[in-house]
Write a structure and sequence with these properties.
Potassium Channel Kv1.1, Chain A, SKP1/BTB/POZ_sf, BTB domain-containing protein, binds zinc ion
């Protein structure tokens, strides 16, 4: 994968070595924020009556030491090394050089929620990543459980839940950068699933990787610019799975292409037929030419053209359900085998998780 020529930082699996706690460096008051340890105040987490300043790289968070210490024994240990007194305002400063300020902001939103600060957004994947990194490093059990639960919601192993959750991906243009970015998050999800023993997310995550087609080779770019790739073994699983899915759905597009709304029952005097022909046929022909794209729309409720009259829409959906739903459910059920992770998913099920 020619990674040696890349200028960007590259990440495969993050080992425990990368996320070991460090002893913070410490110093007295830096109210002038100047010199080599200068920092900028964080706008979101700067409590005027906070009793210490946590400087992560060059961002200062003014916080309450007792509240932060109470979160885990590691944080308690780190903060207990801080000198007991400070400068003119008595404010101690603790430096952490290796974490990202962005990650800490996500963590602080979770630990010290303000207003609706913890509500989930449409793209909370960077938040999930940050919570995994820091909760593992500082042994924050509750935060880790929250991150696991958020990842399981995103890559559900329940067919109906997945269809609903995944519908936003199908609304994106199939070749948009936005869709590629969302799908490639699964590369990181697979690493977390392995690192933290959450195999139930693997089938859906591998499915999203397969939907990337050739773009799987470009990896996932984190907010800090580092790019993460599927390790070779998982890349092999993904490519093998792509081929299986394409083969299993070879008849999908041709069968849809043969369908045509009925003239007789159309409330628009047959206008739906023209619409179908123009829009659906064009989309499907394009999908058919692109091979893997058709397998990516496997679990999409299709066709759901809003322009069709209610009669034609209902008939098309009924036809689609009777023609494909059984097959879609079977493909879904087989995903662990398709991507070679059935042994992991099964073992976890037996363990009751
Ligand atoms: Zn109609």
């Amino acid at each position: 994968m020619g990674t040696g020529t890349r200028a960007k930082r590259v990440r495969f699996y993050e080992s425990d070595e990368d996320i070991k706690p460090e002893l913070p460096s410490q110093s007295r008051d830096h109210s002038d924020h100047s010199g080599p340890e200068a920092y900028e105040r964080d706008e979101e987490f700067w409590f005027a009556d906070g009793n210490f300043i946590l400087v992560v790289r060059t961002t200062g968070f003014r916080l309450y030491m007792g509240l932060l210490s109470a979160q885990s024994s590691i944080l308690r240990h780190l903060l207990s090394h801080v000198a007991p007194d400070g400068g003119s305002e008595g404010t101690q400063v603790v430096h952490i050089a290796t974490d990202s300020p962005r990650d800490w902001r996500y963590l602080l939103r979770r630990l010290f929620p303000k207003g609706n600060g913890t509500s989930r957004s449409s793209n909370d994947f960077p938040m999930i990543c940050a919570l995994f990194r820091l909760s593992h490093k500082y042994q924050l059990t509750d935060v880790m459980e929250y991150a696991k639960s958020a990842l399981k919601d995103t890559y559900s192993n329940d067919y109906d839940t997945w269809r609903i959750h995944d519908s936003h991906v199908h609304r994106m243009d199939s070749h948009s950068a936005q869709r590629t970015a969302v799908l490639s998050q699964a590369i990181v999800a697979i690493r977390f699933a392995r690192l933290f023993n959450i195999p139930s997310v693997l089938p859906a995550a591998f499915y999203h990787c397969a939907c990337l087609g050739g773009a799987i080779a470009r990896g996932y770019t984190h907010e800090d610019g580092a790019t993460e790739y599927l390790p070779p073994d998982d890349l092999e699983r993904c490519i093998n799975g792509m081929q299986t899915l394409v083969a299993a759905t070879a008849d999908y597009v041709p069968r849809l292409l043969k369908y045509m709304p009925a003239h007789k029952t159309c409330k628009k005097g047959g206008a739906c037929r023209r619409l179908w022909k123009l829009e659906v046929t064009e989309k499907l022909t394009k999908a058919g030419r692109q091979g893997s794209t058709s397998s990516c729309d496997l679990f999409e409720r299709f066709p759901a053209l809003n322009g069709l009259c209610s009669n034609c829409k209902k008939k098309a959906e009924d036809w689609e359900a009777s023609s494909f739903e059984g097959k879609q459910k079977k493909l879904w059920k087989d995903l662990p085998v398709t991507f070679g992770v059935a042994h992991l998913v099964k073992r976890r099920r037996v363990e009751g998780n």
